[in-house]
Fold this sequence. Notes:
It contains five helices and 15 strands.
Amino acid sequence: METTSSFALLTYNINDDAMSDSAPRGWTLETQHAALRQLVLQHNPDLLCLQECFGFPSRQVFRSLQEQYTFHGDAPSHRGNCWIATRKDSQLQSDGPARKVGPCVLLPLRLGARRLVAGSCHLAPFAEFGPVRARQVSAIVSEVPPDSPLLLAGDTNMREKETSLAGELGLRDAWLEAGSPPGARWTWDTHVNRYYQDGHRYTARYDRILYRGSTVTELAVAANTPASREPEHFLSDHFALTARVTLH
């Protein structure tokens, strides 16, 4: 088999134990989990990073997903757990045990002769906790040898004024590196996603892909179409991100 130098990534805050206020009558958590499973299988990522997981991945509805993915480990966050998984038939495979660093699960990976460390994270919430998020990211970066490629994906909860933090820690921001495409910016949009009917209407780039030692391309927002015939109903209060990662 010819060895590839790139792999596909999907990161998603699935808000596992809740359902949208806009969900149609008869919609259940089991229905939602089945739709989530289908979404993952449709995108078929080599690397899967999930946040706000509660019963995941032990629930019955995810059994077929576990047939295709190996879930290597998790880390608790302020809400639910972060999980990281690789597709079983992918050339991207684990290269050691997962470990917890605050609200992040880190996993060493190999792609042929290439190595990297990837993390699924869910950083501290709320605007006033920017300094906490800075310390969390710094701790994660400090856990990885400086000469090792690092990929950090998930719900960072970062505000726009915190965007410079990644660069200060030697990381690139996939959205900025892509030229700041408008269509791949917002992973939180309560103008269209009325997950909370009484919630404030605003947009945010909470979910990000930060990295070093690689190139991230094909950045796109996913899970941003209605989950049912109800136009304001989505699988989560967040949208997902997909990308292709190429190791140098």
